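pasting for ref
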Amino acid sequence: MRIVGIVALCAVAGGCASVTRGTTENLTIVSTPPGAEATISGLDNPTACVTPCTVVVKRNADISVSVAKEGYEPQVVQLTKEIPAAGAAGFAGNVIVGGLVGMGVDAVTGAATDHKPNPVEVTLERIAPPARPGPPRKPRPAAPPRTGT
C-alpha cells in the first residue's frame, strides 16, 4: 500500500525540481547605455522590452537575446542552460520520491536548469559617424607677377 501512495504522490507532484523550482525563471537584461531594445527569441511568443527589464522565460527554452539601440552596434547573446546545485538537488530528489516519472517531467520541462548568463549584461559600442567632408577651401589669390630687374 505504501508503494501505491508514493506512486500517486509522484503522479500528482510531477518532478521534484518542477515542484520546488517551477518551470519558469526571471531573466534580467541590462545594457550600457540603458534604453536599448532587447528582443528575446526562442520563446513560444517572441518578446521585446526596453532595458533594463525582466521577462519570465521557460527553463527549457533555447534563448538568444538581441540588444539594439540607434547609434550603437547591435549585439546578440546566446544563453546556455546549466544545472545549478538547487536544480541538481531537486532532480536527485526524484530518486527518493519521484522515480522515473519525476525525472522525466523535470527533464522535459527543464525544471532542473537555469539560463546563463543571468542577468544578461551588454555594453553597446558606438557606431563611428561617417567622415564628413571639410568645408570647401577658398582658392589662394594669385601671386603678383614678378618683374625682372
